[in-house]
Specification:
With about 220 residues, the chain is an alpha/beta fold. It contains 10 helices and 5 strands, in the order E-H-E-H-E-H-E-H-E-H-H-H-H-H-H.
Length: about 220
């Protein structure tokens, strides 16, 4: 069962998402909150698998709430998915740096929304094409800041990180590298541990930021 926390200051949005999620046999909404501060408290109380957090809220916004959740060792199993009204907003990079596993635009189709929740629950990065484009554009417009040492990665781990940054799943990475999906997952997980990346989304950031993947 995928346990979900909803954090949005608009009650109508929360109720719509709750109705959609609760209709699924494998998903359960365990709590709701109307602002980031309450959302962090609810996360600590319920330990959800997924926290769907609106990026723009009064008081503690979605980015700060994401940062607090990512920094809490007790919430290491909680994946934050940012909800936004716009695919190309100014918060994309900051939220990923704060620890978000991905983004969803609020006008996404219901079936795509449910798929995204399941993808995030598996620990995969969730970045819409428009969001990925924004992320890449950010790196094009600024000098690289190689503050992540890739020397500690093996050659296969570097290859796996490169493929993660290009949007491939573990199964696709396995096919490309001619290895088993379990071995692919092991390479990715070891790279995350060595680079202190919370999830695959942060691996994408590191891959571009370090110059491992070129735009």
């Amino acid at each position: 069962m995928i346990r979900v926390l909803l954090v949005d200051d608009q009650p109508l949005i929360r109720s719509g998402f709750r109705a959609l999620l609760d209709a699924e046999d494998d998903i359960e909404v365990v709590a709701e909150a109307a602002d980031g501060e309450a959302g962090v408290l609810q996360a600590r109380q319920h330990l959800p698998d997924i926290a769907l957090i609106d990026v723009q809220m009064p008081g503690v916004d979605g980015i700060e709430a994401t940062r607090r959740i990512a920094a809490d060792p007790a919430l290491s199993g909680t994946h934050v998915v940012i909800l936004t009204n716009y695919g190309l907003d100014e918060y994309v990079f900051d939220a990923l740096k704060a620890g978000a596993a991905g983004f969803l635009v609020k006008d996404v189709l219901p079936e795509d929304f449910l798929h995204a929740v399941r993808v995030a629950a598996r620990g995969d990065a969730l970045l819409a094409p428009s969001i990925t484009r924004r992320l890449i554009d950010r790196f094009v417009s600024q000098p690289l800041r190689p503050n992540h040492s890739l020397t500690q990665l093996t050659g296969r781990e570097r290859e796996a990180v490169t493929l993660v940054a290009r949007g491939l799943s573990n199964d696709e990475i396995a096919q490309r590298m001619v290895i088993s999906p379990l071995t692919a997952k092991t390479h990715v997980n070891r790279a995350m541990m060595k680079l202190h990346a919370r999830d695959r989304a942060q691996l994408v950031v590191i891959a571009y930021e370090s110059g491992l993947v070129e735009v």
